[in-house]
Each structure stands twice: as C-alpha cells, then as structure tokens.
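Can anyone check this?
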Amino acid sequence: MVNWLQKGKISDLDFMHGFTEPSLAIYVMTINGLSSKIGYSTNPGLRCGGLQTGSVDEITIFWAARLPAAQARKLEKMCHAALKKVGRHLRGEWFRIHPSVATDVIKRLAEEAKFDLVPDLFFGYTPVNH
C-alpha cells in the first residue's frame, strides 16, 4: 500500500478507515476496570505498549474509535473536563471510572458535538519486531 504520510497527505491507517484527512483514535484504556485513561493516538496499540513499560499493573485497551484529528483532540478535552467536573479525576488522563462508563461519556459527548466516531479496526494491534 502507498504510504500517503510520506507524500504529505494521509496515512495508510487513515485511508483504511475511510478518512480523506488525518485522523486520530480516541481510546479508553483500563487497569483492572478500576481506573480508565481517555486519550488519543495514531496507534492505540503502540501507545498502550509504551504505557505498559512504566506500569506494574496490566493496562488494556477497552475501546477505540477514529475521527478527524482536530475533533479527537477537542473530544478528549471535553471528556476530561466533564469527568473532572464530577470529581472522577485521578491524575493526568486517568479517571476513577469503569471503562464502559468512560466509553459512554465519549459517545455521548461526540453525539452532542455532532462528531462521527468510526470504530478503530486495529486498536489492539502492536507490530512484532522480527
């Protein structure tokens, strides 16, 4: 497949998800379902692996969806603000909330903002180094 990113256009990942502009995945990661991280990344699988390196507890991806990059950044901020307002903030992008509830918050705020979420086809994908 052509690497559109090298040509200054869109990435293969964007193309595979049907985007004609750069996109990001907004995701929910969790530690044992007790706390959730809401963030965005071009590749949540790689992001999760990077976070796992610094954590004694297992971090898993619960849910991810893609949307245009500017919308993903805005939606993440909206989610963080909403959860901080109700006292669920722990630290950084981590919240004391079950991942299914975090996912529902993202979906509700996306709907209110009229952002279309596209399920991420590869949210758990981490390339294997040979």
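Reply from J.R.: I decoded it. Residues 23-119 form one domain.
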